[in-house]
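A quick word before the example. In earlier lectures we treated sequence and structure as two separate objects. From today on, think of them as two lines of the same record. Here is SWI/SNF complex 60 kDa subunit written that way.
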Amino acid sequence: MEAPKTIKKRKLIDKSIPNVVLQNPEFAEDSQMYTSLLEMERKLDWTMTRKKVEIQDALMRNPTTTRTLRLFLSHTVSGQVWQNSGVASDKVNFETGEGIPAWELKVEGRMLEPPNQRSRDKAPQRKFSTVVKRLIVELGRDTTLYPEGNIVEWPRAPGAHNPALDGFTVRRKGDTATRIRIILYLNHSPPQYKVVPELANVIGIKEDSRVNVIQALWAYIKSAGLQDKVDRRIIRMDDRLKPLFGNEVMFAKLPEMVNRYLAAADPIVLHYTINPAMPPPERPTAWDVEVKIDDVALRGRMQVVINPSKESLTAMQRLDEEIALHAQSLHNAHLKRTFLHSFAKDPAHFVQTWLESQSRDLENILGSGPTEGMSLRQEELRRSEFFHLPWVQEAVAIHESLKLAERAAT
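And the structure line, produced from the sequence above:
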């Protein structure tokens, strides 16, 4: 035996109230306030839907922010003469390097927290190596005296196989002063490019992402009215852009043309000097540089707007159902009031009309009576909706049962 199907409860969605209630002078003020609230709700729903679409579009482009990266340069020394009370160490181990004068350079970095950041928006601190694309350390030493190599390079490997490090260390033997140049290529997101001076002087941007450069050029084209009046796909260049793009360019070719005037962004170059004959500084030397990264906090807040919690959706749905239930109660109260008001105004006429209506409905259902079911009006029979009323199925069932009873009797 199959289990009976559960009947789904029909949810009330109509939140409007009867026009008679709206037009009643006694409820005019309250009705106007309720109508204004419904209109405000519709506008708010439309605005929120539009904003959600805009946020989804923004998420496709990965929101970015500019953060400050603080670089630290420091060094330590070992085995130096001044560390051995002015006497060269007599315990030298060439295999382990113990006792040999040497120095160690440290290149470290730390991302600074933005000011006035909320605690719930704080993201895990990024490691220094995750914002470095390439690091080169050049040592100004005589290669004949120090054959270890004067160039140390750390290239970022493609993919997610790079270790997350707080810094890099370079160790070399020696007791002479050394000038060091650190060349740092940052891993911006999105990648940054240097704009050639000819185009940079027109759009006013020297370095930015490819998308922002194209948008700046498009803004200049629109402000100068360079689009063809007839065919909007054609861009007719002015005197400042003709040397770069020619007389005219198709709109679809514009990004490709811009790529020709973009170059790799200039690296950050830092200079540092190590003098092993003197004690290292107590504090490291620091520089602040700007780096563009993905805005994880903003992305999280945008995701919350697009995907609200289940608790919020459940609470809103419950409130909507309560409003619809109250609106339905007003409808029922209005019908009851109309019924009682008609009865109180003329009880005899009301009862007579009600009895005639009930008699007519019963006659229509049974198909018999004083008029033998002919009390139906012709205009009702012409309408298909009449045969879909709730009582029609019951009337057909009664009619067929009467016919079966007649056949059984004969």
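Notice the following. Residues 371-375 have pLDDT under 50 and may be disordered. We will return to this example when we discuss secondary structure assignment.
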